[in-house]
Amino acid sequence: MSRTVFCQHLNKEAEGLDFQLYPGELGKRIFDNISKPAWAEWQKKQTMLINENKLNMMDPQARKFLEEKMEAFLFEGKEPTIEGYVPPKA
Known about the structure:
Probable Fe(2+)-trafficking protein; globular; single chain; 3 helices; Fe_traffick_prot_YggX; two-stranded antiparallel ribbon; mainly alpha
């Protein structure tokens, strides 16, 4: 059975994640307040950020950078800057 959350990113009720996908407090906050569609959107942006910045995910600095972008995107609606990427107009 799927769960519903009030998604802080989409600002509406939507299908919640099946389990906590990210560790710690931030992971819990994402699980409680972010929907599957919003998370999927972030995953696409995260991949672009990793590729564009040639991030090594073993590097704590790279993980911190991504975490900050993730939090800003999911909870503050801030689009990450990705060279040559123009978000589709709503």
